[in-house]
Amino acid sequence: MTTMTFKRIFTQYKILALLVAIALIWAFFSWKTDGGFTSARNLSNLMRQMSVTGILACGMVFVIIAGEIDLSIGSLLGLLGGMAAVLDVTHGLPLPLSVIIVLGAGLLCGFLNGYLTAYAGIPSFIVGLGGMLAYRGVVLGLTGGATVAPVSPGMEQLGQAYLPPLWGSILGIGLFVLTCVLVWRQRASQARHKLPVIPMWRSALRVVVAGAVLAGLISTFNSYEGIPLPVLILLVLLGVFSYIARQTVFGRRIYAVGSNMEATRLSGIDVRKVKLWIFGLMGLMCALAGLINTARLAAGSPSAGVSAELDVIAACFIGGTSMRGGAGTVHGALVGALVMASLDNGMSMLDVDAYWQMIVKGLILTLAVWLDVATRGNTR
C-alpha cells in the first residue's frame, strides 16, 4: 500500500477508526473493572463529564481551524464557574440573571482575547498564556481560594437533571431520521452539482453506524435515569456549530482564514473581525462549560478547569483538526473529547497513578499531531 493510498483511506475513514478505538477502550476498561466501566450509571457519568470538554471543543475547533490557539480556556472556565457560584451562593441572584451575567462575562473575555490577537497583533499563544495566569489569579481572588458551596437546587439542575426515558427514545428516533435525511441530501446535492457521488455502501454504513450508536446510547441512558441535560446541551451545540461551519458564510470564512489568511484578506474579507468573533464564541463556550461544571459539582472550585485546555486541544487534534489550520470538523472534535473522557474515567476507576495518566494523555496528543502531519504532509 502506497503512502498516498494510506493517507486517502485514513482521511476518509478517520471517524470510523476513532469509533472503533473508543469501542476497544471501553472493552478494555470493562474487562479490567469487571463490567463496572460500561455500567449504565458510569456511562451516564462519563457522558456528563465529557460534555464539559465537548462544549469547550466546539469553540476550540473554530479557533484552531482559523490558525490560532487559546490556552486560557481552562482558567477562564474556572473563573466563570466560580463567578456563577459566587452570584448564586453569596449574592443569591435568580438563576436566569446569574446565567445571563456569566454568559455575558464569557463573551466579553473572549472578545478581549480576540481583540488582543486580531487588532493588537499579539500572538494568540501569548494572549492565551497570559490569560491562563491572569484568569486563574482572578478566580483565586474572587473565591478567596476556597470552594463556594452549596449552589441552589435550580443551578444543580443544569448539570444533574435528566430527560425522561420516553422523551429520550423519541429524541433518539428523531436523530436517526435526521441522519437519514442529511445523508440523502448530501447524495442529492452531489448529484445535482455533478460531483462524484459517495458510494451507496458508504452512505448505508454511515446510517447503520449512527443508528447503532444512537440505539446503544439511548438504551443505556434510559436504563439508568435518562439522558443527562449536559448531553442534550452538547447535542444542540453540535447541530448549531456544524451548521455554522458548513452552511454559513461565516463558517466558510473561518476555513478560508486558516487555509490562507493573506489570500482571504486580499479577497476583501475582514480577517480581524472573523478572528474577533471566533474568540468571542470561545469565551461564550467557556461560560457555558463553567456553568455546567459548577452545577455538576454543586460547587464553585478555584481549581476547576486546571489543564482543561490540554484535554480540549488534544480532543480537537484527535478528531482530525489540523494544527496548521484550515481543516477540521465539530463532530470529529467531539469524538476526540469522548476518547479523552473515556481514558480519564477508565484510568481513574483503575486507580492509575496521576503521573501515568499525564504520560498517557501526553503520548496520545503527540500521536494525534503526528498522524495529522503524516496524512496531510503533501496535501498542501
Automatic annotation (TrEMBL):
<dbReference type="Pfam" id="PF02653">
    <property type="entry name" value="BPD_transp_2"/>
</dbReference>
<keyword id="KW-0812">Transmembrane</keyword>
<feature type="transmembrane region" description="Helical">
    <location>
        <begin position="274"/>
        <end position="292"/>
    </location>
</feature>
<keyword id="KW-1003">Cell membrane</keyword>
<dbReference type="GO" id="GO:0005886">
    <property type="term" value="C:plasma membrane"/>
</dbReference>
<feature type="transmembrane region" description="Helical">
    <location>
        <begin position="99"/>
        <end position="118"/>
    </location>
</feature>
<feature type="transmembrane region" description="Helical">
    <location>
        <begin position="166"/>
        <end position="184"/>
    </location>
</feature>
<keyword id="KW-0813">Transport</keyword>
<feature type="transmembrane region" description="Helical">
    <location>
        <begin position="204"/>
        <end position="221"/>
    </location>
</feature>
<keyword id="KW-0762">Sugar transport</keyword>
<feature type="transmembrane region" description="Helical">
    <location>
        <begin position="46"/>
        <end position="66"/>
    </location>
</feature>
<protein>
    <recommendedName>
        <fullName>Xylose transport system permease protein XylH</fullName>
    </recommendedName>
</protein>
<feature type="transmembrane region" description="Helical">
    <location>
        <begin position="125"/>
        <end position="146"/>
    </location>
</feature>
<dbReference type="GO" id="GO:0022857">
    <property type="term" value="F:transmembrane transporter activity"/>
</dbReference>
<feature type="transmembrane region" description="Helical">
    <location>
        <begin position="227"/>
        <end position="245"/>
    </location>
</feature>
<comment type="function">
    <text>Part of the binding-protein-dependent transport system for D-xylose. Probably responsible for the translocation of the substrate across the membrane.</text>
</comment>
<keyword id="KW-1133">Transmembrane helix</keyword>
<dbReference type="InterPro" id="IPR001851">
    <property type="entry name" value="ABC_transp_permease"/>
</dbReference>
<feature type="transmembrane region" description="Helical">
    <location>
        <begin position="354"/>
        <end position="374"/>
    </location>
</feature>
<keyword id="KW-0997">Cell inner membrane</keyword>
<keyword id="KW-0472">Membrane</keyword>
